[in-house]
From TrEMBL:
<keyword id="KW-0004">4Fe-4S</keyword>
<feature type="domain" description="4Fe-4S ferredoxin-type">
    <location>
        <begin position="62"/>
        <end position="94"/>
    </location>
</feature>
<keyword id="KW-0408">Iron</keyword>
<dbReference type="GO" id="GO:0048038">
    <property type="term" value="F:quinone binding"/>
</dbReference>
<feature type="domain" description="4Fe-4S ferredoxin-type">
    <location>
        <begin position="108"/>
        <end position="137"/>
    </location>
</feature>
<keyword id="KW-0411">Iron-sulfur</keyword>
<keyword id="KW-0874">Quinone</keyword>
<feature type="binding site">
    <location>
        <position position="84"/>
    </location>
    <ligand>
        <name>[4Fe-4S] cluster 2</name>
    </ligand>
</feature>
<keyword id="KW-0677">Repeat</keyword>
<feature type="binding site">
    <location>
        <position position="120"/>
    </location>
    <ligand>
        <name>[4Fe-4S] cluster 2</name>
    </ligand>
</feature>
<dbReference type="GO" id="GO:0005886">
    <property type="term" value="C:plasma membrane"/>
</dbReference>
<keyword id="KW-0479">Metal-binding</keyword>
<feature type="binding site">
    <location>
        <position position="77"/>
    </location>
    <ligand>
        <name>[4Fe-4S] cluster 1</name>
    </ligand>
</feature>
<dbReference type="InterPro" id="IPR010226">
    <property type="entry name" value="NADH_quinone_OxRdtase_chainI"/>
</dbReference>
<keyword id="KW-0472">Membrane</keyword>
<feature type="binding site">
    <location>
        <position position="74"/>
    </location>
    <ligand>
        <name>[4Fe-4S] cluster 1</name>
    </ligand>
</feature>
<feature type="binding site">
    <location>
        <position position="117"/>
    </location>
    <ligand>
        <name>[4Fe-4S] cluster 2</name>
    </ligand>
</feature>
Amino acid sequence: MPIAEQDVKWVQEPKLGLFGQLYLPLVMDGLTTTISHMFQKKVTEQYPEQEPKLPANYRGVHRLNRDHDGHVKCVACYMCATACPAHCIDIVAAPAPVGWTDREKYPETFVIDELRCIYCGMCEEACPVDAIELTTLYDLTGLSREQMIFDKEKLLSVFDMTTKAGTDPVRTQAGKLGPASEAPPQK
């Protein structure tokens, strides 16, 4: 449908004076910005010589938490795999071993593809038993794609390492915006 002639508004190009034609206002704006940045606090960090200070609710490498008996806390309910928008979690459930009276199933295999993950925290938020968490570990490296696929043993070793170092205490309470939205309480 063509536009009616009375609905069309023609705009005239603004007329610039001599000052505007010399671009002096734009040059002054650029110099003001440059000089103001010269006197601001420097934000560049010299990584890896200087470790960055990350907030406690930073979303880094995943871990699987252990329960008080040292078993994997996961009950293989598939909530994390269902909530994951990147489809990077693969779980194979099996009946719980004899003696594990607090659950019917446990994850026989639990695999997270860390290269596919977008670190959104949806898995952590969906977990009903707080079995999966994102830690503050950020220096994730590997020489091959296979090294970046974390299985259950590797995820449990991240739990052992982070709790031993005291960098990531187990979160038991969610913040206002989700499990990783606030720093865990300090002991």
